[in-house]
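Input:
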Amino acid sequence: MIVAEKIMPVNVSSTLDVERIRQDFPILRERIHGKPLVYLDNAATTQKPLFVIDAVHHYYRAQNANIHRGTHYLSQVATFEYEKARGKIRQFINAKDNKEIIFVRGTTEAINLVSSAYGRKFICAGDEIIISAMEHHSNIVPWQILCEQTGAVLRVVPMHQSGELIMEEYVKLLNEKTKLVSVVHISNALGTVNPVKEIIRLAHERNILVMLDAAQSIPHAPVDVRDLDCDFLVFSGHKMYGPTGVGVLYGKQQLLESMPPYHGGGDMIRTVSFEKTTYAELPNKFEAGTPNIAGGIGLGAAVDYINRIGIHKIAEYEAELMAYATEQLSAINKLKIIGTAKEKAGAISFVMENVHPHDTGTLLDLEGIAIRTGHHCAQPVMQFYGVPATSRASLSFYNTKEDIDALVKGLHKVMEVFK
Amino acid sequence: MSNTNELYQEIILDHNKNPRNYHKIENPTCSQEGFNPLCGDHLHLYLKLEDGIIRDISFEGNGCAISKSSASLMTSVLKGKTVNEADELFEKFHKLVTSSMDEEQQIEELGKLAVFSGVREFPARVKCASLAWHTLRAALDNKDKIVTTE
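Output:
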């Protein structure tokens, strides 16, 4: 982190120089339907700074080769850059060893990797897996598939109307049959920040493993796997200013070592014969085939970029913006915020009387404002609140109070159309 | 909002607010559920047929203004039409929302359904406008399963 700051000094004092930061994101200069882009769909994917775009571009122009196999110069450069990116990620989440950082396609693949590789070996009929009522489909469906295959049982921690987990119910669910708890750190649909440290502590008291879905927390808050003591942690590159198609599975070394491989193929073996194959050491054991090299390098650049601004400063600025957005949206008549947890970050979901979110989305789009409308891949959350869909504005450090004002103005126009 | 009026025309807003034929028909000849998994738009269509004529048609459900008004207008237009005429209208409506038609032809062939012509400028919303029609076709084909736009 210190190294990155040395390379790219930038004048950010106590608050962020957002105007200067916005210059780093070329797409923010685009006009949509003739209006300046107001991008408030960061929970779906974030925009990319030039620094990341350039890293990917530079790789393909000057460094492209396959990794881990060539004796030639470019192959060594590509391998070096890819592994350097792994090291940056390790440092970013404070993992102990580069072996604990597995490159995958994204959060979804990371969860599937654990549910199949860990699940296949260690989860049996009658075992229990705990998730929460606010999970993204990607942290529900892989477990349902595993339960179907093994006869294990899926348990769900319920939540309050506020969108906060009912911790007493969670404690009750923990028992000697529980093998794994897999919960979201920050909810994509509600913005709730879950008390994950407590969740982990309570599970560990009973020797139960915990996996955290950090897809929405990694861009917004410091995530320290050793401080949290989580057993697995998963996230996507594209939600933290990196490229799509790359993400990370962090796992404690001895756990990853105990697991069978996920995909078989090249790069994940030590020796292959028709009689017997032995597998490569971590992390290669879980990285069969040619990976997304440019994506990994781009993600490393995204980590540098975040470090340059400082994740603590990002969290501080975004909290301020979130408070402003909450206040402004709450002041709109006939608008109801869905999810009112005390601790929220990143996203605000809302519904409006007599206006379906899709109509809201289309009308805002015509104003150049991008938000997400729909079920946010969290249909059980929608069922819980009895709504078919919500509108969701989600924030980044490049958003401003003016963006929120534009959203509020747009919403008033929506209500004018549907009055 | 320059294009707003093209999409959200007065008649669409009216049918969204006061959907016509919005109820259940007891003992329908056929009924069908339609679902758009992308948006969560969901409707249930009921039909009473007699000698190949749609004597009564109604719907219930949840959805955006485009899908609700489309179902409302569809049911208004189809009452009294033959099944063959309904099929023809399905084809024409599909063409209206997906490809360009000149204005005169639109009104001549589709009457008040032509208000949905603005939808073609919004590819993400075509499925909303056509959900009721796909559900109708499935109902008439007597498919006994949920139809989706995916």
